[in-house]
Amino acid sequence: MQILTLAGTVGKDADLRQTQGGDAVLNFSLAIDNGKDSDGNKRAATWFDCSLWGKRANALQPYIHKGDKLTVTGRPTARTHNDKVYMGCNVNDLTFQGSANRDGNRDTGSQQSSGGYGGGDMDDDLPF
C-alpha cells in the first residue's frame, strides 16, 4: 500500500458532508508550497483534495480552517475531470502544525490526531 505524507496550508474551511449511506466525510484542500525557482520567483502551489472519513470527520470539522498548517498522511488518490487531473489524499492521520486565528495571528502549536482530535496541552506530560 502506498502512503502519502503532505505538509501544507488549508485552502478553505473544511466541508462536512454525508454519503448516501450515512457515512461522514470531511473535505478540505491543502496547498503545498513549492518554494522559489533559480531566479527567486515563487513557484505555483500544488493542490491536493483531502478527505477524512467517519467519526473523526465529525470531530475535526470545527477545527480545520482556511490558513491552518497541517501535515496529513494517507492513501494517494487521483481523479480526472474535463481532461484535468486532480490529486488527492484519503487521510489516515493528521497533525495540526499551527492555525490562523481570527485576528490574523498564527498559533504555532502542534497537535496530532490519528483516532480523534488530539486536544489538550501535551507539555504537561513531558518530564523535562
Task: Give the key terms.
8 strands; OB fold (Dihydrolipoamide Acetyltransferase, E2P); about 50% strand; disordered C terminus; five-stranded mixed beta barrel; mainly beta
Structural features, described:
This protein has 128 residues and is mainly beta. The protein has one domain (4-119): Nucleic acid-binding proteins (OB fold (Dihydrolipoamide Acetyltransferase, E2P), Beta Barrel), CATH 2.40.50.140. The protein contains one helix and eight strands. A hairpin with a 2-residue loop joins strand 5 (69-81) and strand 6.
Would you identify the regions where 5 or more consecutive residues have pLDDT less than 50? 104-128
**What is the architecture at the second tier of CATH?**
Beta Barrel
Distance between the termini: 38 Å
Q: What fraction, in percent, of the residue positions are helical?
A: under 10%
Assembly state: single chain
- The neighbouring-strand order within the major sheet is 1-3-4-6-5
Please state the overall shape, judged from the principal axes of the Cα atoms: globular
Count of structural domains:
1
Radius of gyration: 16 Å
Q: Looking at this structure, what is the CATH superfamily?
A: Nucleic acid-binding proteins
Largest sheet: 5 strands, mixed, barrel
What is the secondary structure topology, with strand pairs?
Layout: E1 4-10, E2 15-18, E3 24-32, E4 46-53, H1 55-60, E5 69-81, E6 84-100, E7 106-107, E8 111-113
Parallel strand pairs: 4-6
Antiparallel strand pairs: 1-3, 1-5, 2-3, 3-4, 5-6, 6-7, 6-8
Concise summary:
The protein is mainly beta. It has one helix and eight strands, in the order E-E-E-E-H-E-E-E-E. Strand 2 (15-18) and strand 3 (24-32) form a beta hairpin.
